Amino acid sequence: MRSPLNDLPKTALGACYAIFVIYLLLPLALMMAMSFKDANFIAFPISNWTLDWYGKVLQDKQFIEASVYSAGIALATTIGATVIGVWIALLISTEGIRGKAILFALACLPAVVPGLINAISMRIFIRMVDIPTGTFAIILSHTVHAVPFVVIMVLTRLRSMPANLVDAARDLGADAFVAFMRVTVPYILPALIGGMIFCVLTSIDDFVRTFFLGGYKPTLPMLIFAKVQGGMSPEINAMATIVLIVTAAIGLYAEHFTRRSRS
């Protein structure tokens, strides 16, 4: 299919691409550069470069505790969202099930509802069922938000799966569970890993839901937000740079794993 962009000059397309890359990467580059500034304020030029702020961050007890806490929430969220998401995807892909479109729409609804609305509704819900704010409430909210990503990725993979693979396994004597574990799971594994990575990244990055449902123990976004209230500093930039590098590494690994599995 011919795209309307094909009629544009290559120089115009190149200029648009360059502007987009600059718009995307320049703020990140400035943030990372400021994390090496030797003075305790944000401004150019940078007369001397230092790694002291990174050493201070890595020795910050609050940062380490918040990172471990956020990682634990992300792990629990990923497990819950993966189990629920795979179950919904399998249900939608099963023949003879009525109302698939409605089920798919309901499963994807948390991804399109604004985060603020979702957080307020979850806050009302946990009060009605007498669930205290804190870790469990955060995990519950993050899981609801992460399920659509697993459903979409796994369902897309399931729809490309030849139906005769499972039938062949059943004909060879495998029961439904064995056929699922040895045929279906290996086939959907790239999508499963991709969905799990999305769950981890969305949970670690989530601020609005955590703000409404969290207790006194801060997650990493909450800690950075609290520090920003006292003014920007190279230490905050160093924290943000560490988070950026870790999340980017996770995303790149997921992309590499998915490509290798598909090939």
Description:
The chain has eleven helices and no strands. The protein has helices spanning 10-34, 52-58, 61-93, 100-112, 115-128, 135-159, 163-171, 176-205, 208-213, 220-228, 234-262. Helices cover 76% and strands 0% of the residues. With 263 residues, it is mainly α. Helix 7 packs across helix 8. The model has no long low-confidence stretch (mean pLDDT 83). The protein folds into two domains: 10-36; 52-261, MetI-like fold (Orthogonal Bundle), CATH 1.10.3720.10. It is globular. The chain starts with 9 loop residues before the first helix and ends with a helix. This is ABC transporter, membrane spanning protein (Putrescine). Belongs to the binding-protein-dependent transport system permease family. CysTW subfamily.
SSE order, one letter for each helix or strand: HHHHHHHHHHH
Task: Note poorly predicted spans.
Answer: none
CATH superfamily name of the largest domain?
MetI-like
- For the record, the CATH architecture of the largest domain stands as Orthogonal Bundle
Overall CATH class of the largest domain:
Mainly Alpha
Radius of gyration: 23 Å
What are the salient characteristics of this protein?
single chain, 263 residues, MetI-like fold, 2 domains, 11 helices, mainly alpha
Describe how the helices and strands are arranged.
Layout: H1 10-34, H2 52-58, H3 61-93, H4 100-112, H5 115-128, H6 135-159, H7 163-171, H8 176-205, H9 208-213, H10 220-228, H11 234-262
Domain ABC transmembrane type-1: 67-254
Family: Belongs to the binding-protein-dependent transport system permease family. CysTW subfamily.
Transmembrane segments: 12-34, 68-90, 102-126, 138-158, 179-204, 236-254
